[in-house]
Each structure stands twice: as structure tokens, then as C-alpha cells.
Amino acid sequence: MLTRGRDVPYLRFRPSEDAPADSRRLEQEGWALLRGVLDADEVATLAADITRVYDEYPPDNRRPHRAGAEHEQFRYEMINRSAACQRVAGHPRILSVVEPLLGEDCHVIACTAWRNPPAVEHTHGGGLWHLDAGPHLPLPPGVDWDERIPHPVFAVGCHLLLQDCPAACGPTGVIPRSHLSGIAPPADRLEDPSLSWRDNQPLSLAAEAGDVQLFVSDVWHRRLPTGPGDAGRFFLQIHYGRRDLAQRLRPTASANQLSAEAAERAVSDRERTLVGLHRPLFYDG
User: Fold this and answer.
1) Which fold has domain 16-249?
2) Most buried residue, 30, 39, 69, 204, by most Cβ within 10 Å?
3) Could you report the per-residue pLDDT of 130-140, keeping only the tens digit for each?
4) Tens of pLDDT, residues 265-282
5) How many Cβ atoms are within 10 Å of 90's Cβ, its own excluded?
């Protein structure tokens, strides 16, 4: 746990007992589930405004290799396109959980609407075990994280459900404590729903409309397999990051601090990444 100092603006250690239980669960287990953050009327209002965005804005083609139908499932930079999304990103109950881990000046680094249709094979990476970024603290093989040291959190994913997501709909699943591994999921088992880490079995975050699923960026997670009665998924995904992490609302090709001349001088792939022109990945695509 941490806090941002007021007199001297550096991050400082914060005793875990001063933070909510859900913050401690995120830090220690890599996940938390907040029940009933929005009531039925609030869910309906938010869902209606996000549906408006789907109607008014065409899909963002941020990954050209994806099929067109897959692009249709997402709408990016939602806090720019929806006042309702911007308001809910500041919901006190969510911030009360993430701020003790990221700092009181944490910010939204990505905000994407997801509308996955039912009974359709999901081909995007969310259907495989993955990390959203990192691991932020890679560890060599055979080295364990010292449990005396609270594991730092750099970014937290938030899924605010706009319709019920029971087991049949393929809810987000996490492998508890896998964020402590310092490694990515094994490449030969990315599709294996029984993958575990140190005897920690996959945990389904099945939930109802108005609930919020939270997970740290380094934890192994995926959309779990769907089953009979799959009704699809509809949720707002918000990623919160430490102040030091750059926002990813828009790709760097369209949102950067470069002059036109500097961008033109960057020709090779490394020259482009060096000046901050990165291909969409993780939060921005």
C-alpha cells in the first residue's frame, strides 16, 4: 500500500490495515469483486449511453490483422465519448479500493467498452491466459517473491458489468497470486482452462450487472470458456494506472507530443518507438 505525500510529493509506504479489505485482496491475491456498485437504474443509464456510442461511432481499427466482426465488439476512449463513462470512472467505491495501491493521483490510462456477442468463438487475446502488461517486476526462474515485501501494483483493470455474466457467458477468470510469479503464463498452456500457479486454481469472477471485477495488471487472467445459454458480455473496461504510466486512450500515432518534423525523421521501428510512436498493445488496442 502507498500514499502520495502532500508536503513532499513522493510515494510513501502506507500500512495495509489503513486500507479497505478489497485493496488488501488486490495486493495479495491479485483480484477483488465489488458487489452492487451501480443499481439497476444506474446500469440502464450507463448501458444506454454506451449503446449510443456504438451507434454513433464506427469501430476503431487499431489492429488491422483482426477480422471486421471483432473490431465491432469494442469502442475505445470512452471517457471522451461518454460523460456517463467519465463520471463512473470516478465512482468513490472504486477509487477507495484502487487509490491505496496506485496513489491518490492515479489516473485512467484506458477506457474501452466491450460488447461480445453470444455463442461466437472469441478470437482476440482476451480468450487466452495473459497479462495486461508486465510483469512489472520480472523474476528469474526459481526465485520467489519475498512475502515480507508487499508486492507493488502499477495498474488495475476494472470491468463494470452492464449485464449479468454467469459461468455460461465466459466471465473473466483469474489465477490468484499469479501476479507474484514475475513471469507470463506458459506459452504452451494459454488455452488451458485448468492452468494453475503454485496450486492456485483458476477463479471465476462470475457476477451480476452493477458489479465490478478488479484485477491487477500482472495477474494471469482470461475470458473463461462459454457454455450453453451464453448471452454474451457487455461491460465497461477501465484501467487505472499510477501517475507515472502514460495514458493509452488513443494510439501514440494520433496522440503524442512530437512535432510533425520529428515524427517524419523517425523512420525505423526503433527510431519510432524511441520518440514515443508505439504500435497499439495492451491497453491501447
Assistant:
1) Jelly Rolls (2.60.120)
2) 30
3) 999 889 999 99
4) 999 999 999 999 998 887
5) 11
